[in-house]
Amino acid sequence: MLLEIKDLTREFVRRGVPFAAVDHVNLSMDDGEFIAIVGRSGNGKSTLLNMVSGLLRPTSGTVTVEGKTVAELDDRALSRLRNRTIGFVTQSQTLLPNLTVIDNVILPAVLFPDDPVTHDQDHAAEEATAPDVPKQTISGQDPSADQSDPDMPDVIAPATSPSPSDEQTDALTMRAHALLADLQVDDLAHSYPRELSGGEMRRVSIARALMNQPKLLIADEPTGDLDAESTLIVMRLLRSLVDRGTSVLMVTHDADALPYADRILTLDAGRLAEKTA
Ligand SMILES: Nc1ncnc2c1ncn2[C@@H]1O[C@H](COP(=O)(O)OP(=O)(O)OP(=O)(O)O)[C@@H](O)[C@H]1O
């Protein structure tokens, strides 16, 4: 089983009174499943996704990814899980401001260069033709940009291993361009995040989350600020990934995104249930 959520609860305290934002949730996901979760604002959707990805600790219950209990992992194992097994498109913008678009997308792949991603999965992006571009490295620092990273994304972990070889960097650059092309933002590869619209940033974030070919993509409102055409592009890409074995757990308010999912669940006051028509 790829993901197993058992009796998961997260309490917060409001005005001195504890309440369960996520309340005894159970869910299992296998490879190649596409689950959408809908629910009114404040009903616990982001809290649930944050626990699945290990960003938030449960009050009780467990999240198990590929047999490993997320809350029991040490920092390095958790970073590796979030970098390699899980891709996370967060609700808020987490691109690094001082890196170009292409370097933001490549970044997750150079964090653990001793553990290269195997490119044996038949992913959509690999079928795309990469444009003829100069070799990129994670060096495109914009001297005028703020060097602090208040929005450091969860994929960031200290890179303690040697840098990838030129050949690996070329392959990673080609893959990043192919993903950006799939999402129709490759013309922005050398722009900085501050030069992008909200919808463009969202698509770049999706490319970054897919860079390491995650087995489980967690997406919090992936089409939140996209127009109808971009929504179609993103949802078709997610569907094609699912059809090739990736699993997607998506939270959405977007009715146009729902037909692409295999199952639709509701989260109501922290309680998860199958959506009835
Ligand atoms: N750190 C926190 N401390 C206290 N309460 C919190 C905290 N984080 C979330 N909550 C509360 O928990 C509930 C669930 O929040 P959550 O962000 O999971 O909702 P959501 O369903 O994702 O909402 P939205 O659709 O608006 O993003 C809300 O009532 C929120 O105010």
Task: Map the helices and strands.
Blueprint: E1 3-14, E2 17-29, E3 34-38, H1 45-52, E4 60-65, E5 68-69, H2 75-85, E6 86-89, H3 101-110, H4 124-127, H5 166-182, H6 198-210, E7 216-220, H7 228-243, E8 247-251, E9 263-268, E10 271-274
Parallel strand pairs: 3-8, 3-9, 6-7, 7-8
Antiparallel strand pairs: 1-2, 1-4, 4-5, 9-10
Helix pairs in contact: 3-5, 3-6
Bound molecules: adenosine-5'-triphosphate.
Keyword list:
alpha/beta; binds adenosine-5'-triphosphate; 277 residues; 6-stranded mixed β-sheet
A few lines on this structure:
With 277 residues, the protein is an alpha/beta fold. The protein is built from seven helices and ten strands.
Outline the structure in words.
This is ABC transporter ATP-binding protein. One of its GO terms (cellular component) is plasma membrane. The structure is a single chain. With 277 residues, the protein is an alpha/beta fold. It has a single domain, classed as Rossmann fold (3-Layer(aba) Sandwich). It has 7 helices and 10 strands. The strands form 2 sheets. Strands 6-7-8-3-9-10 form a 6-stranded mixed sheet, sandwiched between helices. Strands 2-1-4-5 form a 4-stranded antiparallel sheet. A hairpin with a 2-residue loop joins strand 1 and strand 2. The longest helix is centred in the middle third of the chain and has 17 residues. The chain is globular, with a radius of gyration of 18 Å. About 16% of the residues have low confidence. Bound molecules: adenosine-5'-triphosphate. The site of adenosine-5'-triphosphate (ATP) has 11 residues, from strand 1 and helix 1.
